[in-house]
Specification:
- There is one protein chain.
- This protein is an alpha/beta fold.
- Helix content is 44%, strand content 14%.
- The strands form 3 sheets. Strands 3-2-1-4-5-6 form a 6-stranded parallel β-sheet, sandwiched between helices. A 6-stranded parallel β-sheet has the order 11-10-9-12-13-14.
- The chain is globular and about 75 Å long.
Protein backbone atom coordinates (compact mmCIF):
# COMPACT_ATOMS: atom_id res chain seq x y z
CA UNK A 1 0.00 0.00 0.00
CA UNK A 2 1.17 3.55 -0.70
CA UNK A 3 1.33 5.59 2.51
CA UNK A 4 2.15 9.25 3.09
CA UNK A 5 3.26 10.57 6.47
CA UNK A 6 3.05 14.32 7.16
CA UNK A 7 5.45 15.24 9.96
CA UNK A 8 8.77 13.64 10.91
CA UNK A 9 8.71 13.91 14.70
CA UNK A 10 8.64 10.92 17.03
CA UNK A 11 5.27 9.69 15.79
CA UNK A 12 5.66 10.38 12.08
CA UNK A 13 9.22 9.21 11.55
CA UNK A 14 8.86 6.05 13.61
CA UNK A 15 5.47 5.18 12.10
CA UNK A 16 6.75 5.78 8.57
CA UNK A 17 9.84 3.64 9.09
CA UNK A 18 7.83 0.82 10.66
CA UNK A 19 5.19 0.90 7.91
CA UNK A 20 7.99 0.66 5.34
CA UNK A 21 9.47 -2.24 7.27
CA UNK A 22 6.09 -3.96 7.00
CA UNK A 23 6.39 -3.76 3.20
CA UNK A 24 4.45 -0.59 2.37
CA UNK A 25 5.69 2.21 0.09
CA UNK A 26 6.13 5.17 2.41
CA UNK A 27 6.78 8.83 1.69
CA UNK A 28 7.53 11.03 4.71
CA UNK A 29 7.02 14.77 4.31
CA UNK A 30 8.26 17.66 6.42
CA UNK A 31 8.33 21.37 5.60
CA UNK A 32 11.71 21.78 7.33
CA UNK A 33 14.41 21.26 4.69
CA UNK A 34 17.14 20.54 7.24
CA UNK A 35 15.24 17.64 8.81
CA UNK A 36 14.60 16.00 5.44
CA UNK A 37 18.24 16.38 4.40
CA UNK A 38 19.33 14.79 7.67
CA UNK A 39 16.98 11.84 7.16
CA UNK A 40 18.18 11.31 3.59
CA UNK A 41 21.74 11.14 4.92
CA UNK A 42 20.73 8.65 7.59
CA UNK A 43 21.04 11.13 10.47
CA UNK A 44 17.96 11.14 12.66
CA UNK A 45 16.55 14.48 13.93
CA UNK A 46 15.38 12.65 17.07
CA UNK A 47 16.98 10.14 19.43
CA UNK A 48 15.28 6.75 19.32
CA UNK A 49 16.95 3.39 19.86
CA UNK A 50 17.26 1.48 16.54
CA UNK A 51 15.63 4.17 14.40
CA UNK A 52 18.74 5.19 12.47
CA UNK A 53 19.42 1.61 11.42
CA UNK A 54 15.79 1.00 10.49
CA UNK A 55 15.46 4.15 8.37
CA UNK A 56 18.79 3.46 6.67
CA UNK A 57 17.66 -0.04 5.73
CA UNK A 58 14.20 0.83 4.39
CA UNK A 59 15.65 3.76 2.40
CA UNK A 60 18.19 1.46 0.76
CA UNK A 61 15.45 -1.06 0.04
CA UNK A 62 13.48 1.68 -1.75
CA UNK A 63 10.36 1.60 0.43
CA UNK A 64 10.97 4.86 2.32
CA UNK A 65 11.40 8.32 0.78
CA UNK A 66 11.76 11.63 2.64
CA UNK A 67 10.63 14.81 0.88
CA UNK A 68 9.59 18.44 1.30
CA UNK A 69 7.40 18.32 -1.84
CA UNK A 70 3.80 18.53 -0.56
CA UNK A 71 2.21 17.88 -3.96
CA UNK A 72 4.33 14.81 -4.58
CA UNK A 73 3.69 13.45 -1.10
CA UNK A 74 -0.09 13.89 -1.18
CA UNK A 75 -0.41 12.44 -4.67
CA UNK A 76 1.63 9.42 -3.53
CA UNK A 77 -0.50 8.24 -0.64
CA UNK A 78 -3.61 6.08 -0.79
CA UNK A 79 -3.63 6.69 2.95
CA UNK A 80 -2.29 10.00 4.29
CA UNK A 81 -1.34 10.22 7.96
CA UNK A 82 -1.23 13.56 9.78
CA UNK A 83 1.51 13.27 12.42
CA UNK A 84 2.20 16.89 13.36
CA UNK A 85 2.53 18.40 16.82
CA UNK A 86 -0.42 19.46 18.99
CA UNK A 87 1.27 21.38 21.83
CA UNK A 88 -0.64 23.11 24.62
CA UNK A 89 -1.45 26.76 24.12
CA UNK A 90 -1.51 29.32 26.94
CA UNK A 91 -4.99 28.24 28.05
CA UNK A 92 -4.02 24.57 28.28
CA UNK A 93 -6.02 23.58 25.20
CA UNK A 94 -4.37 21.72 22.33
CA UNK A 95 -2.96 23.99 19.61
CA UNK A 96 -4.40 22.47 16.42
CA UNK A 97 -2.97 24.99 13.97
CA UNK A 98 -0.45 22.49 12.55
CA UNK A 99 -3.17 19.88 12.07
CA UNK A 100 -5.39 22.28 10.13
CA UNK A 101 -2.49 23.61 8.04
CA UNK A 102 -1.66 20.02 7.10
CA UNK A 103 -5.26 19.06 6.32
CA UNK A 104 -5.81 22.17 4.19
CA UNK A 105 -2.62 21.42 2.26
CA UNK A 106 -3.79 17.85 1.74
CA UNK A 107 -7.00 19.18 0.19
CA UNK A 108 -5.03 21.52 -2.04
CA UNK A 109 -3.07 18.65 -3.60
CA UNK A 110 -5.59 15.79 -3.51
CA UNK A 111 -6.22 14.52 -7.03
CA UNK A 112 -9.82 14.76 -8.24
CA UNK A 113 -12.15 11.73 -8.08
CA UNK A 114 -9.46 9.46 -6.64
CA UNK A 115 -10.47 7.98 -3.27
CA UNK A 116 -8.10 8.68 -0.39
CA UNK A 117 -8.15 8.20 3.37
CA UNK A 118 -6.91 11.03 5.60
CA UNK A 119 -5.83 9.80 9.03
CA UNK A 120 -5.04 11.81 12.15
CA UNK A 121 -2.37 10.10 14.25
CA UNK A 122 -1.71 13.33 16.10
CA UNK A 123 -3.43 13.47 19.48
CA UNK A 124 -6.45 15.72 18.99
CA UNK A 125 -9.48 16.63 21.15
CA UNK A 126 -12.91 15.14 20.57
CA UNK A 127 -14.62 16.36 17.37
CA UNK A 128 -11.38 17.66 15.82
CA UNK A 129 -11.67 15.24 12.90
CA UNK A 130 -14.96 16.80 11.85
CA UNK A 131 -13.03 20.06 11.49
CA UNK A 132 -10.20 18.25 9.69
CA UNK A 133 -12.72 17.07 7.11
CA UNK A 134 -13.93 20.63 6.55
CA UNK A 135 -10.33 21.87 6.37
CA UNK A 136 -9.49 19.35 3.64
CA UNK A 137 -12.54 20.51 1.68
CA UNK A 138 -11.48 24.12 2.16
CA UNK A 139 -8.04 23.36 0.74
CA UNK A 140 -9.58 21.56 -2.24
CA UNK A 141 -11.69 24.56 -3.20
CA UNK A 142 -13.88 23.75 -6.18
CA UNK A 143 -12.18 20.41 -6.92
CA UNK A 144 -14.27 17.24 -6.74
CA UNK A 145 -12.46 15.11 -4.17
CA UNK A 146 -13.36 11.74 -2.69
CA UNK A 147 -12.00 11.04 0.78
CA UNK A 148 -12.83 9.90 4.29
CA UNK A 149 -11.31 10.84 7.63
CA UNK A 150 -10.12 8.34 10.23
CA UNK A 151 -8.80 8.79 13.77
CA UNK A 152 -5.93 6.39 14.50
CA UNK A 153 -4.27 7.55 17.74
CA UNK A 154 -0.75 6.33 18.48
CA UNK A 155 0.38 4.66 21.69
CA UNK A 156 4.15 4.75 21.21
CA UNK A 157 6.50 5.36 24.14
CA UNK A 158 9.62 7.38 23.49
CA UNK A 159 12.64 5.12 23.87
CA UNK A 160 10.75 1.95 22.93
CA UNK A 161 8.60 3.19 20.05
CA UNK A 162 9.80 0.72 17.39
CA UNK A 163 9.13 -2.19 19.71
CA UNK A 164 5.76 -0.69 20.66
CA UNK A 165 4.72 -0.28 17.03
CA UNK A 166 5.40 -3.96 16.39
CA UNK A 167 3.98 -5.21 19.69
CA UNK A 168 1.12 -2.83 20.41
CA UNK A 169 -1.55 -3.67 22.99
CA UNK A 170 -4.25 -2.55 20.59
CA UNK A 171 -4.92 -0.60 17.41
CA UNK A 172 -7.70 2.00 17.57
CA UNK A 173 -9.35 3.19 14.35
CA UNK A 174 -12.42 5.40 14.28
CA UNK A 175 -14.52 6.64 11.37
CA UNK A 176 -18.07 6.91 10.06
CA UNK A 177 -16.89 5.10 6.92
CA UNK A 178 -16.61 1.31 6.92
CA UNK A 179 -14.67 1.55 3.66
CA UNK A 180 -12.03 3.74 5.31
CA UNK A 181 -11.84 1.46 8.36
CA UNK A 182 -11.29 -1.54 6.09
CA UNK A 183 -8.37 0.27 4.40
CA UNK A 184 -6.78 1.07 7.76
CA UNK A 185 -7.26 -2.45 9.04
CA UNK A 186 -5.28 -3.73 6.04
CA UNK A 187 -2.19 -1.96 7.39
CA UNK A 188 -2.40 -3.52 10.85
CA UNK A 189 -4.06 -6.88 10.27
CA UNK A 190 -0.78 -8.85 10.50
CA UNK A 191 -0.27 -7.75 14.12
CA UNK A 192 -1.36 -10.18 16.80
CA UNK A 193 -3.45 -7.64 18.66
CA UNK A 194 -7.03 -6.43 18.94
CA UNK A 195 -8.17 -3.85 16.42
CA UNK A 196 -10.78 -1.57 17.96
CA UNK A 197 -13.14 -0.23 15.27
CA UNK A 198 -15.26 2.62 16.54
CA UNK A 199 -16.63 6.06 15.75
CA UNK A 200 -14.49 9.18 15.35
CA UNK A 201 -15.30 10.74 18.70
CA UNK A 202 -14.60 7.60 20.71
CA UNK A 203 -11.28 7.02 18.95
CA UNK A 204 -10.23 10.59 19.66
CA UNK A 205 -11.14 10.29 23.33
CA UNK A 206 -9.49 6.90 23.89
CA UNK A 207 -5.96 8.35 23.67
CA UNK A 208 -6.70 11.20 26.08
CA UNK A 209 -8.53 8.91 28.49
CA UNK A 210 -5.65 6.41 28.50
CA UNK A 211 -2.95 9.02 29.12
CA UNK A 212 -5.01 10.81 31.75
CA UNK A 213 -5.59 7.53 33.58
CA UNK A 214 -1.87 6.71 33.57
CA UNK A 215 -1.06 10.21 34.80
CA UNK A 216 -3.62 9.69 37.55
CA UNK A 217 -1.90 6.45 38.54
CA UNK A 218 1.45 8.26 38.77
CA UNK A 219 0.02 11.10 40.84
CA UNK A 220 -1.72 8.59 43.10
CA UNK A 221 1.46 6.72 43.99
CA UNK A 222 3.25 10.04 44.47
CA UNK A 223 0.56 11.07 46.94
CA UNK A 224 0.98 7.70 48.67
CA UNK A 225 4.72 8.45 48.89
CA UNK A 226 3.89 11.53 50.95
CA UNK A 227 1.97 9.39 53.43
CA UNK A 228 4.88 6.94 53.51
CA UNK A 229 7.31 9.71 54.44
CA UNK A 230 5.04 10.81 57.27
CA UNK A 231 4.40 7.32 58.68
CA UNK A 232 7.63 5.39 58.11
CA UNK A 233 6.18 3.11 55.41
CA UNK A 234 8.16 2.36 52.24
CA UNK A 235 6.49 3.34 48.96
CA UNK A 236 8.29 0.61 47.01
CA UNK A 237 6.82 -2.05 49.28
CA UNK A 238 3.40 -0.42 49.07
CA UNK A 239 3.58 -0.21 45.27
CA UNK A 240 4.66 -3.84 44.99
CA UNK A 241 1.78 -4.96 47.18
CA UNK A 242 -0.66 -2.89 45.16
CA UNK A 243 0.73 -3.94 41.79
CA UNK A 244 0.30 -7.65 42.47
CA UNK A 245 -3.44 -7.05 42.38
CA UNK A 246 -4.30 -7.94 38.78
CA UNK A 247 -6.96 -5.23 38.74
CA UNK A 248 -4.24 -2.63 39.35
CA UNK A 249 -0.99 -4.00 37.90
CA UNK A 250 2.57 -2.83 38.64
CA UNK A 251 3.15 -0.36 35.79
CA UNK A 252 3.20 3.40 36.47
CA UNK A 253 3.49 2.83 40.22
CA UNK A 254 7.01 4.20 40.58
CA UNK A 255 7.01 7.20 42.91
CA UNK A 256 9.22 10.07 41.80
CA UNK A 257 9.34 13.75 40.96
CA UNK A 258 6.21 13.69 38.81
CA UNK A 259 5.23 12.97 35.22
CA UNK A 260 6.50 15.09 32.33
CA UNK A 261 7.27 14.81 28.64
CA UNK A 262 5.51 15.78 25.47
CA UNK A 263 2.33 13.74 26.08
CA UNK A 264 1.06 13.41 29.66
CA UNK A 265 1.11 17.09 30.70
CA UNK A 266 -0.48 18.40 27.52
CA UNK A 267 -2.98 15.55 27.18
CA UNK A 268 -4.21 15.87 30.76
CA UNK A 269 -4.53 19.64 30.34
CA UNK A 270 -6.29 19.26 27.00
CA UNK A 271 -8.78 16.71 28.37
CA UNK A 272 -9.55 18.97 31.31
CA UNK A 273 -10.02 21.85 28.87
CA UNK A 274 -12.36 19.69 26.77
CA UNK A 275 -14.43 18.88 29.84
CA UNK A 276 -14.68 22.59 30.70
CA UNK A 277 -15.71 23.47 27.15
CA UNK A 278 -18.47 20.89 27.47
CA UNK A 279 -19.66 22.40 30.77
CA UNK A 280 -18.25 19.68 33.03
CA UNK A 281 -15.74 20.21 35.82
CA UNK A 282 -13.42 17.17 35.76
CA UNK A 283 -12.40 17.58 39.40
CA UNK A 284 -10.29 14.42 39.52
CA UNK A 285 -8.03 15.72 36.74
CA UNK A 286 -7.64 19.02 38.56
CA UNK A 287 -6.34 17.04 41.51
CA UNK A 288 -3.99 15.03 39.31
CA UNK A 289 -2.44 18.16 37.82
CA UNK A 290 -2.16 19.83 41.22
CA UNK A 291 -0.52 16.75 42.79
CA UNK A 292 1.96 16.53 39.92
CA UNK A 293 2.91 20.19 40.26
CA UNK A 294 3.43 19.83 44.01
CA UNK A 295 5.53 16.67 43.73
CA UNK A 296 8.60 18.42 42.32
CA UNK A 297 8.37 21.06 45.04
CA UNK A 298 8.27 18.34 47.71
CA UNK A 299 11.52 17.04 46.27
CA UNK A 300 13.22 20.43 46.09
CA UNK A 301 12.15 21.07 49.68
CA UNK A 302 14.29 18.11 50.75
CA UNK A 303 17.29 20.02 49.40
CA UNK A 304 16.16 23.31 50.94
CA UNK A 305 15.59 21.63 54.31
CA UNK A 306 19.16 20.37 54.22
CA UNK A 307 20.91 23.48 52.91
CA UNK A 308 18.47 26.38 53.09
CA UNK A 309 16.87 28.19 50.15
CA UNK A 310 20.02 30.18 49.31
CA UNK A 311 22.23 27.68 47.48
CA UNK A 312 24.84 30.12 46.16
CA UNK A 313 27.66 28.37 48.01
CA UNK A 314 26.65 24.87 46.85
CA UNK A 315 27.54 22.77 43.83
CA UNK A 316 25.30 19.87 42.87
CA UNK A 317 26.04 16.95 40.61
CA UNK A 318 22.92 16.20 38.54
CA UNK A 319 22.30 12.89 36.78
CA UNK A 320 19.65 13.18 34.12
CA UNK A 321 17.70 15.97 32.46
CA UNK A 322 15.53 14.10 29.92
CA UNK A 323 11.92 13.65 31.03
CA UNK A 324 12.48 9.88 31.13
CA UNK A 325 15.17 7.34 30.32
CA UNK A 326 16.03 6.19 26.79
CA UNK A 327 15.18 9.51 25.14
CA UNK A 328 16.78 12.89 24.48
CA UNK A 329 13.45 14.70 24.94
CA UNK A 330 13.41 17.52 27.50
CA UNK A 331 9.98 18.89 26.62
CA UNK A 332 8.00 19.44 29.85
CA UNK A 333 10.79 17.60 31.68
CA UNK A 334 10.39 17.81 35.46
CA UNK A 335 14.13 17.12 35.71
CA UNK A 336 14.81 20.25 33.66
CA UNK A 337 12.44 22.29 35.82
CA UNK A 338 14.22 21.17 39.00
CA UNK A 339 17.60 22.10 37.55
CA UNK A 340 16.22 25.56 36.80
CA UNK A 341 14.88 25.87 40.37
CA UNK A 342 18.25 24.91 41.87
CA UNK A 343 20.08 27.30 39.58
CA UNK A 344 17.58 30.02 40.41
CA UNK A 345 18.46 29.52 44.08
CA UNK A 346 22.09 30.22 43.22
CA UNK A 347 23.43 26.67 42.95
CA UNK A 348 26.17 25.65 40.54
CA UNK A 349 25.37 22.50 38.59
CA UNK A 350 27.50 19.73 37.11
CA UNK A 351 25.16 17.99 34.68
CA UNK A 352 25.22 14.76 32.71
CA UNK A 353 22.61 12.90 30.65
CA UNK A 354 23.44 10.01 28.28
CA UNK A 355 21.31 11.39 25.42
CA UNK A 356 19.84 14.82 26.23
CA UNK A 357 22.94 17.03 26.60
CA UNK A 358 22.40 18.87 23.32
CA UNK A 359 18.77 19.66 24.13
CA UNK A 360 19.72 20.56 27.72
CA UNK A 361 22.22 23.15 26.48
CA UNK A 362 19.54 24.68 24.24
CA UNK A 363 17.17 25.02 27.19
CA UNK A 364 19.60 25.92 29.97
CA UNK A 365 22.50 27.73 28.37
CA UNK A 366 25.80 27.92 30.25
CA UNK A 367 25.07 30.09 33.30
CA UNK A 368 26.03 28.25 36.50
CA UNK A 369 26.03 24.92 34.62
CA UNK A 370 28.95 22.70 33.60
CA UNK A 371 28.15 19.94 31.13
CA UNK A 372 30.12 16.80 31.95
CA UNK A 373 31.19 14.07 29.54
CA UNK A 374 30.35 11.12 31.82
CA UNK A 375 28.20 10.22 34.80
CA UNK A 376 31.33 9.63 36.87
CA UNK A 377 32.58 13.19 36.29
CA UNK A 378 29.44 14.57 37.98
CA UNK A 379 30.66 13.36 41.40
CA UNK A 380 33.88 15.37 41.53
CA UNK A 381 33.92 17.88 44.43
CA UNK A 382 30.15 18.39 44.62
CA UNK A 383 28.22 19.00 47.81
CA UNK A 384 25.43 16.59 46.88
CA UNK A 385 24.26 14.35 44.06
CA UNK A 386 20.77 14.77 42.57
CA UNK A 387 19.29 11.95 40.45
CA UNK A 388 16.48 13.20 38.18
CA UNK A 389 16.12 10.70 35.31
CA UNK A 390 15.85 6.92 35.65
CA UNK A 391 18.61 5.89 33.23
CA UNK A 392 19.65 2.33 34.07
CA UNK A 393 23.33 3.25 33.95
CA UNK A 394 22.79 5.54 36.93
CA UNK A 395 21.51 2.62 39.01
CA UNK A 396 24.57 0.51 38.26
CA UNK A 397 27.28 3.06 39.16
CA UNK A 398 29.84 2.22 41.87
CA UNK A 399 28.51 4.60 44.51
CA UNK A 400 30.86 3.28 47.20
CA UNK A 401 33.81 4.55 45.14
CA UNK A 402 32.29 7.56 43.37
CA UNK A 403 30.85 9.21 46.48
CA UNK A 404 34.39 9.45 47.91
CA UNK A 405 35.03 12.14 45.28
CA UNK A 406 32.27 14.34 46.74
CA UNK A 407 32.70 17.08 49.33
CA UNK A 408 29.90 15.40 51.29
CA UNK A 409 28.29 12.01 50.72
CA UNK A 410 24.73 13.23 50.19
CA UNK A 411 22.36 11.84 47.54
CA UNK A 412 18.89 13.12 46.62
CA UNK A 413 17.28 10.37 44.54
CA UNK A 414 14.27 11.69 42.64
CA UNK A 415 13.60 8.37 40.91
CA UNK A 416 14.16 5.85 43.73
CA UNK A 417 16.86 4.16 41.68
CA UNK A 418 18.95 3.32 44.74
CA UNK A 419 18.27 1.43 47.95
CA UNK A 420 18.49 3.36 51.24
CA UNK A 421 20.12 0.47 53.12
CA UNK A 422 22.83 0.06 50.48
CA UNK A 423 23.57 3.78 50.55
CA UNK A 424 23.78 3.79 54.34
CA UNK A 425 26.29 0.92 54.22
CA UNK A 426 28.70 3.09 52.19
CA UNK A 427 28.17 6.13 54.40
CA UNK A 428 25.81 8.05 52.14
CA UNK A 429 23.15 10.36 53.56
CA UNK A 430 20.29 9.30 51.33
CA UNK A 431 16.99 11.05 50.48
CA UNK A 432 14.53 9.20 48.27
CA UNK A 433 10.81 9.58 47.57
CA UNK A 434 8.68 7.88 50.23
CA UNK A 435 11.48 5.46 51.15
CA UNK A 436 11.77 3.92 54.58
CA UNK A 437 15.16 4.28 56.28
CA UNK A 438 14.76 1.21 58.49
Amino acid sequence: MKITIIGTGYVGLVSGAVFADWGHEVMCLDIVDKKIEMIKKGVMPIYEEGLEELVDRVQKEGRFVATTDYKKAVEHGEIIFICVGTPSNESGAADLSYVFKASESIGKYLPENDYRVVVTKSTVPVNTNNSVKESVKKGAGSKKIDFDVVSNPEFLREGTSIYDANNTDRVVIGSSSEKALDKLEEIYKHLETEIVRTDLQSAELIKYAANAFLATKISFINEISQICERTGADVKAVARGMGLDKRIGPKFLNAGIGYGGSCFPKDVEALYRTSSQNFYDFRLLRGVMDANERQKIYFVEKIWNKYGENLSDKTFGVLGVAFKNDTDDVRKSVALEIVKILRGAGAHIKLYDPAAMKNAKKSLGNDYISYMDSSEAVFDEVDALVILTEWQEFASLDYADLTTRMNDKVVFDGRNLLEPEEMQKVGVEYYGIGRSKH
